Every structure is written in C-alpha cells, then in structure tokens.
Amino acid sequence: MEYHVPVLLQDSISGLNIKPDGTYLDLTFGGGGHSKEILKHLGKGKLIAFDQDADAEKNILDDNRFSLIDGNFRFFLNYLKFHKINAVDGILADLGVSSHHFDQPERGFSFRFDAPLDMRMNQDAEMSAAGILNSYNEDELRNIFRKYGEIPNAGKLAAKIAQRRNEKQFNSTFDFVEAIKTCLPPRNDYKYLAKVFQAIRIEVNNEIDCLSEMLLQTLLVLKPGGRLVIITYHSLEDRLVKNFMKYGMLDGQPEKDIYGRMEIPFKLITRKAIEPNENELIINSRARSARLRIAEKI
Ligand SMILES: C[S@@+](CC[C@H](N)C(=O)[O-])C[C@H]1O[C@@H](n2cnc3c(N)ncnc32)[C@H](O)[C@@H]1O
Predict the structure, then answer these.
(1) Which of 91, 98, 215, 292 gets mutated to test ligand 1 (max ligand atoms within 8 A of its CB)?
(2) What is the reported pTM?
C-alpha cells in the first residue's frame, strides 16, 4: 500500500520558488513526495527534512543533498543551530497525519479498524488517545471536541464519555465508537466520527501548539525573499497560518505607527488559499480539505 499521495504537489513546489543552490526545509517528510520534487529542482543546494514518526525513515531518500531528522518540527530551529545552519531559502509544511497513519490499523487513527486507542505520531510520546479519554475531565473533553472537531453536541459527547469510563476504561477504537453511538447523528455518522477522531488526534499530538511554535521560528530563519509554504487540513490550522502570513503574528495585528503603517514581515503570494482541483480529488479524495498558503519573507 502506498505510504502517502502528496497533496497540491505542483502548486506547493512552485510556491517555494526553488533556487538551485538554496537550502530548503520539508518539515513534514512523511512518504517523501514533496521532498522528492524539491530535490528535482535543486542543483547544489540542500534539503533538510523532519518527521516525528520514526516510520517515515523507511522512505529516506538516497541523495547526498538530503538529510532526514527524526524529530518534532516545534524544535526545528534547535536542530538547525546544531547543524550550523543559520538561514534558509524556503520552508514547506504539509500538516497533519499521512495516509500511512490511517491505513495502519494498529496506530489507532482510524475508526475503520478495531485497534488500541493510540493516535500518537511519535510513538515514544507519553499521552495516547486512551490516556486522554480516560483521564481528562468532562470540561476538557468538551473543549477539545468543540475547538478541534467543531462538534455541535460536544457537551453531550463529553458527558457520555465521562459516564461510561466510570464503568470501564476505554481501550479500543470499536469499543469507543460503540460507547458514543447515541451521540451520533442518524445520517452522516461517518463525518461525525471523523471529526471526533480528528479532535482527539489533534490533542494527542498537541498539533496547535506545535504549529504555533513552528510558525514563530520561521521568521527567525527565512532569508529575505525566502518562501513559507503551508498546507493545512482544518479551519483552526488555516486561520492561524492565514493570520501569521498576513501580519507575522499568530493572533491579532501589529500596532500601527504614527503614519498608520504596520510593520509586516511577509508579502502574501496567495491572497486566497489554493485548494485541490477536481482532477486531484478524483485521484486522491484525502486531499479534499487541503488549503495551501504561500508567503514571502520581506
Ligand atoms: C500530511 S503528511 C506529509 C506527507 C508528505 N508531504 C508526503 O508527500 O509524503 C504529515 C507528516 O508530518 C508528520 N508530522 C506531523 N506533525 C509533525 C510535527 N509536529 N513534527 C514533525 N513531523 C510531524 C507526520 O508524522 C506525517 O508523516
């Protein structure tokens, strides 16, 4: 089975505006689809890739311009310092999980298979999905489902989970789905479960904090003219990226000076996010929520 089909490949690579002798980062290596394409455009330049899932190492590329770091991109600046790299020409991040995660039953990302409730991208991390479902209080659970899944009956769902785990702790995906079945809408139950699983996964992997920390570090390392290229898969991520590219801040806008001007570190290359076209969606339905944004460091 294919590890992952790269999403918005041509648009994201042309968005990087690759200089043959430049230094580039692929912060989310996965199956290496984007990295392979970057290497095709590089001459003497180099590409440093990151992935927090050790499984990605099996896709490592045999090319002396390439290196893969097994680590979380929230610390990417530290890794660069360690490797004595002070500035880069472009950064790509294709966020979230790969198809590999959904297709490996034992990883627990999918409600299609009965498996341990795991969902950790980094298999050495401490907190799993079962850990969250069995230990977070009802308010915390409700917030996760509301914020990360935009689930309308998040309160009812959190209450159901809290009630059921008093009798028996959660261990497996099918057991969890069975326990919450009275919360599912009569139609669209697949969509509902996808949102519930997405919300839990985002919390397990601390995805919003990692993204926020990573974005702030890009400002410290991108050269003037360097490109930031990000593909998001849900609205919370996209809002953060959009605001960051527009204002150089995760939230809000910089203050205006006495002439009413704002100091903004990026020039927007995409005013509106790029989405996959119909042809891409026919080949790869998992691309359907993808949104690509591109900015250039001033
Ligand atoms: C959507 S996939 C990327 C697919 C890749 N572009 C390709 O073409 O195969 C996202 C990858 O990023 C990794 N990832 C997600 N969050 C990460 C983080 N905070 N640090 C490092 N890797 C992360 C996941 O393990 C996954 O392999």
Answers:
(1) 98
(2) 0.97
The three-class DSSP label of residue 48 is strand
Query: Does the Cβ of 90 fall within 6 Å of ligand 1?
Result: no
- Residue 80 domain flag: yes
Structural domain count, the chain: 2
Supply 77's token pair.
């600046």
Query: CB atoms < 10 A from the CB of 286, how many?
Result: 16
In sequence order, what DSSP letters do the residues of 99-166 get, joined into one string? HHHHH-GGG---TTS--BS---SSTT-S--HHHHHHHS-HHHHHHHHHHHH--TTHHHHHHHHHHHHH
Listed residues 204, 229, 248: the one ending a domain? 204
pLDDT at 254 over 90: yes
Give the ligand 1 atom nearest the CA of 100. 27
Contact residues for 178 (Cβ-Cβ < 8 A; gap 6+): none
Which tens digits make up the pLDDT trace of 99-141?
Answer: 999 999 999 999 999 999 999 999 999 999 999 999 999 999 9
- Tell me which residue range forms the domain holding 278: 9-99+207-297
Closest CA to 199 of 116, 102, 133: 133
Task: Give pLDDT tens digits for 162-221.
Answer: 999 999 999 999 999 999 999 999 888 999 999 999 999 999 999 999 999 999 999 999
Cβ of 74 closer than 6 Å to ligand 1, yes or no, is yes
Dihedral pair phi/psi, residue 115, rounded to 5°: -155, 165
Share in percent of the chain as helix, strand, coil (round to 5): 45, 15, 40
